[in-house]
């Protein structure tokens, strides 16, 4: 049975999205090439979820950028527990809060990097984003790299460090065309028990989504507004000025 090609107008959509549109058909099913591409994307998403973060490599990359880091871990003993017990991923392991509190953050803003559901996203994008954001917001600040962490783990870390605010970078749940999407969450006055309504989120940070310069531009603006207004979440609106084509964060109004 022959393969039916979609109309040209549908095929044109592929220029604007990585979504699976205009795939054509072979009888009642997908063409072989489209079916194999789907299976490959599904395998990449599964790999992203199960892959462990190479903490040592990330720390080396951060150090090369002049950024110091230390580690923490959630109450999840391993990756399997992390996937089955989201609640434990939101809680620091026993003794971790006291260990962090013994060496408070040098600034009032804590930066936390969690593997989340895509260590691949963190490995690819976290260091580059921090290199743009940390010097503009809290020069000299330390970074905590947390294993088996969910977003809310940043609340416990921020509270232990005595921070006024926390920025959590975390690997997002992989999609079938986005296995390496990074998310950024900011919370004012972090402490265990904060809700998602009390956070601001930037999602889909990656070259094919929200590129690093644009993400840094928005993140810096949101953090500065959070500090000025002393709040975050639904009451803090993203009204950051647009980053002009060809303009990077270092030449934007936020760098002044």
How does CATH name the architecture? 3-Layer(aba) Sandwich
Strands across the major sheet, in which order?
3-5-4-6-7-8
Could you say what the CATH topology is called?
Rossmann fold
Cα-atom Rg, whole angstroms?
20 Å
Structural class: alpha/beta
Weakly predicted, low-confidence segments: none
Fourth CATH level, the homologous superfamily = Ethanolamine ammonia-lyase light chain (EutC)
Can you tell me the number of structural domains?
1
Shape: globular
Count of DSSP-assigned helices: 9
Explain this structure.
The chain has 256 residues and is an alpha/beta fold. The protein has a single domain, classed as Ethanolamine ammonia-lyase light chain (EutC) (Rossmann fold), CATH 3.40.50. It has helices spanning 8-12, 32-50, 55-64, 79-84, 86-89, 96-101, 119-137, 153-161, 212-229, and strands spanning 3-4, 25-26, 69-73, 109-114, 143-147, 165-171, 182-188, 199-205. The strands form two sheets. The chain has a six-stranded mixed sheet, with helices on both faces. A two-stranded antiparallel sheet has the order 1-2. Strand 4, helix 7 and strand 5 (143-147) form a beta-alpha-beta unit. Helix 3 (55-64) runs parallel beside helix 7 and helix 7 packs across helix 9 (212-229).
